[in-house]
Amino acid sequence: MESIIVAKDLTKDYGENRGIFGLNFEIKKGEVFGFVGTNGSGKTTTIRHIMGFLKPQKGSITVMGLDAWKDSCEIKKYVEYVPGEIAFPDLVDGTTFLKAQAELLGLENMDYANYLVDKLQLDPSANLKRMSKGMKQKTAIVSAFMADKDILILDEPSTGLDPLMRETFVELLLEEKAKGKTILMSSQSFDELEDVCDRVALIFNGRIIDIANIKEIHNIGYKTYKIEFLDREDYLKFKKLKYEIVRDQEKYSQVTIKIEDKNLNRLFNTLKNYKLKFISEIKYNLEKYFKDVLAREYQKQEKENKLENMSLRKVRKVIKHEHKKVEKKENLEEKNEKFFNKPKVKAEKKENKMHKKEDKQVKKILKKDKKQVEEDKDV
């Protein structure tokens, strides 16, 4: 299948570990691809690169084979966008804004726009500046969807919508998906992404940690059940059986087990012989999957930090050892110098002593000669 959006080693470094680093992903034609992550993880920065608002420091991002930065004007012919932060132009109301957008897009038939307005229960006659966050979000969604373009880029599009309206928005997304649209959306709602997306990327500290396939998560091959027994004897007896217990709550005579799908019949046949208070399935979903991924990532980072600290300790130890070696060498050289220079010093002292003695003798002779000369003069 044709790749519509391709990121290769996409990097934007703002310093202090902020930005996006070495992102690699592909979004196929007709695919709904999601981004999930905390605030500041890099979702919006990535989307702004796709829209051509930011230039990569390293790597590339293409849309329909066009460079997102160099060919951004051409790309916008095929893309509609709902930004994370909505700022409307200085117009009177929503109706005026939507009409202005339609004119800009060359859109003459407003039937689909009216359908979207009704579906989202939007009152477009409201003053743009006085609209609530939810109303602004609905207006932005209508503005993007009514153009009916091939690609939708949505940056946390359901922010500000109430729970019921979020369900309506998910229905709209599924309708767009059924049309074969290629959709990229970021969100902090796991349920929303799981209901709509084919794949979801987890962004953590500006890096893609994992890309989850929703079908694979729904068909993971095992189930998790929480079982509570009425009788403690049954609870103890069940624990002796060869089931994988992932959590044991003795206080409540309760166990949580993980079992492969192929062994489900065996489990339920076994439980016929026990008195149960309840049994409930713990659904494995996107949120649980990413929590497991993050737990592994934290463990990996802790291990790397420990290794780094160990390396630093080793470096310090080596430096200290080298310093000691240098000090020892210097001390040895100083001792050697004193030892080898000892005879030389003695000889110099002896020579100086002889010179002093000779000087004294010369002075004595000169003094004697001077005295003799003076005596001769007197005579």
Could you provide a short overview of the structure?
By secondary structure, the chain is of the alpha/beta class.
Separate helix tally:
11
What share of the residues does DSSP label as strand, in percent? 15-25%
List segments where confidence is low: pLDDT < 50 over at least 5 consecutive residues. none
For the largest beta-sheet, the strand count, sense and barrel status come to: 6 strands, mixed
Overall mean pLDDT: 85
Q: Biggest sheet, strands in spatial order?
A: 6-7-8-3-9-10
Shape: flat
Look at the helices and sheets and give the structural class: alpha/beta
Query: What Rg, in angstroms, do the CA atoms define?
Result: 41 Å
Q: What helical percentage do the residues reach?
A: 40-55%
Count of strand segments: 14
Q: List the helices and strands in order.
A: EEEHEEHEHHHEHEHEEHEHEEHEH
End-to-end C-alpha gap: 137 Å
